[in-house]
């Protein structure tokens, strides 16, 4: 199977991008206009949303997002945050997740980040270790009732 | 002591902002032009860098940064990332850290985030629990040799 890893684009609304994300968590109702608005907002040097597409079918089989944070520490350094990594249930075991993460690490490096970080469940630590990351700290969360 | 919590501004270069950050980690040489350039880059709806200023002396005693991430999941939701929280060694024990974190949680809520997250060392978990956060996942890191 030939897989192309590339940046998210508008046509991916019809290639199953949101259905893929729904395998990760709640996506909700996002119509084409809302999708395109958010895509425009993240079309910036501080984002890179990668997708893995099956070249034969044109269907998306995986995605992972990178957000670049601009800091003052480390000489006004930048940090890449990897978020929302998901591979289609039917396409697991083909190292697509690893290819997506490695792509985002590569983009982080080329955009001048001094490190890449992410948060994951305990049972995914071994997967991210295979991608070249190591265990560091504790993630804390507060959910907001707006 | 009267403390004002407000957003970072250009004049904070002279009020000890970088010296404060150097109590957290390496800051390096950042001249006024570089500081102002980064400040301009983070003068956006997706950042809020809070500082705590001693009203009497005009000296900064603490800072904490918020980066807002725009996602597709959760109905094109937004997540606040809290980063680089530091309180001057001489001003600890006055709940300044808690005030700064609470300010960033409040800004996250007002800007429509559905959650706020951060990464911290194990020995700071109890502090962030006092701020209203709870333990969630594992943070992973990869340092990049550019």
From TrEMBL, chains A, B:
Major subcellular location class: membrane
Reaction equation(s) it catalyzes: D-glucosamine 6-phosphate + acetyl-CoA = N-acetyl-D-glucosamine 6-phosphate + CoA + H(+)
Pathway(s) per entry: Nucleotide-sugar biosynthesis; UDP-N-acetyl-alpha-D-glucosamine biosynthesis; N-acetyl-alpha-D-glucosamine 1-phosphate from alpha-D-glucosamine 6-phosphate (route I): step 1/2
Domain called N-acetyltransferase: residue spans: 3-146
Enzyme Commission number(s) from the entry: 2.3.1.4
Membrane topology: Peripheral membrane protein
Gene Ontology terms describing biological process: N-acetylglucosamine metabolic process; UDP-N-acetylglucosamine biosynthetic process
Keyword Membrane: yes
PROSITE patterns: GNAT
GO MF term list: glucosamine 6-phosphate N-acetyltransferase activity
Keyword Acyltransferase: yes
Gene3D superfamilies assigned: 3.40.630.30
The entry's keywords: Acyltransferase, Endoplasmic reticulum, Membrane, Transferase
One GO location term (cellular component): endoplasmic reticulum membrane
Compartments in which it is found: Endomembrane system; Endoplasmic reticulum membrane
Source species, domain of life: Eukaryota
Assembly mode: Homodimer.
Family: Belongs to the acetyltransferase family. GNA1 subfamily.
Protein name: Glucosamine 6-phosphate N-acetyltransferase
């Amino acid at each position: 199977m030939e897989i192309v890893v590339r940046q998210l684009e508008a046509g991916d609304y019809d290639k199953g991008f949101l259905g893929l994300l729904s395998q990760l968590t709640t996506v909700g109702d996002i119509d084409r206009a809302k999708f395109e608005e958010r895509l425009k907002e993240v079309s910036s040097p501080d984002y890179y949303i990668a997708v893995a597409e099956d070249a034969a079918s044109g269907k998306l089989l995986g995605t992972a997002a990178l957000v670049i944070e601009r800091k003052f520490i480390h000489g006004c350094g930048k940090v890449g945050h990897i978020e929302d990594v998901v591979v289609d249930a039917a396409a697991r075991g083909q190292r697509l997740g690893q290819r997506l993460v490695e792509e985002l690490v590569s983009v982080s490096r080329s955009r001048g980040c001094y490190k890449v970080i992410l948060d994951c469940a305990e049972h995914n630590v071994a997967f991210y270790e295979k991608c070249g990351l190591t265990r560091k700290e504790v993630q804390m969360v507060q959910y907001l009732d707006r």
